[in-house]
Amino acid sequence: MVGWGSTHQKLNQTDFMLAGGASGFITRALCQPLDVLKIRFQLQIEPISYQVHKAKYRSIIQASNLIFKEEGVKAFWKGHIPAQWLSISYGMAQFWSYEVLVRKANAYEYSASWTPFVNFTCGSIAGSFATLISFPFDVVRTRFVAQSEHQKVYPNMLFAIKNICENEGPVVLFRGLWPTILQIGPHAGAQFMCYRLFDNLYKRLLKIENSSLSSSLFAGSLAGLCAKTFIYPFDLVKKRLQIQGFQHARAHFGEHFTCHGLIDCLRKVYHLEGPKGFFKGLSPSLIKAVCATALHFSSYEMACNFLIYLKGL
User: Fold this and answer.
1) Where are the alpha helices (H) located in 147-212, listed in sequence order?
2) Sign of torsion over alpha carbons 218, 288, 179, 231
3) pLDDT tens per residue across span 294-311
4) Are 289 and 225 in contact (CB under 8 A)?
5) What are phi and psi of 219, to 5 degrees?
6) I need a labelling partner for 303 at 20 to 30 A (CA). Which of 15, 53, 115, 166 fits?
7) Sign of the alpha-carbon dihedral angle for 108, 112, 114, 119
C-alpha cells in the first residue's frame, strides 16, 4: 500500500493525509514512554553506566524505575499532548507528500533498478517537508520531557508556546532545525526505501501478492532498525540544542550542557563525552524505532484499507 500502486487509485490526497494522521496518533500513544527514556538519556552529560556514580540514569531498567519512583507513571507520557500534535502533523504531511511525489515519479518511465533510489528520494523530501511543518511541536515536546517535576516551568502546551515566544523569541521554536533536517532527510528516505525492499522480500518469500499486517510489521521493524542506527548522532545533537536556555528547569538532572550552534555542539559532545557520547540513549531509541516504524507503516496501511472499506470500493 505504501507507495503508489493500483490500490491507491481508490484514494485521494485527503485520504492519504487522514491515514497519515491516524498512523502518527496510534504510534505516538503506544511508544511515548520509550521516547521519554531516549530524551532523558540524550540530555544527560554523564555516561549511561553503573560505573559512574554521579550519573542519574545508568540503564533502561534503572531509569524506568527511577522515573516511576520520583515522578510517577504519568512522567512516561510527559509532553504527550505536544508530542501528539507533532506526530499527527508529521504523519499527515509525510505520507501525503510521499504519495504525491511517488505518483508524480511514476508518470515517468524508469528502470526497476531505479525504484530504491526513487523511494529514497521521495521519502527524504517528504520527511524534510513534514519536519518543517511539525518542528515547533518537537521543541515544546522536548522542553516538557526535559523539565523537572520539582521546577516545572510549563503547565500546558499553549503556555509553553506563549512563554517561549515572549521570553526567547519565535525563532527558538525552530532551534535545532538544521541538524534535524540533516537527520530526518536521509532517515525518512532510508525508512521508505528499506520498507519497500523488505515488504517486497516478505511477499516473495511467502508468495503473496498484496501487503498484509504481518508484512508491514516485518518490513517496518527492519526499516526502523536500519534507518535509526545511521542517523542517531544528529538526533542527539538536536535534543541538546533544543534545551539551550532551559537549564534552570534541569537542576535535578546533573551537569549542564551549553553550546552555541551545530558545530560547537558536535565539538563539545566529542570533547566532553567522547565518540560514545553521540550514541547515548541508542538502546531505547532502537527499541522505539523498531516498534514505532512497524506501527507507523502498518497502521497507515490499515487506515488506508479502512478508508477504502468506508468508500465501498
Assistant:
1) 157-167, 177-206
2) negative
3) 999 999 999 998 998 888
4) yes
5) -70, -40
6) 115
7) positive
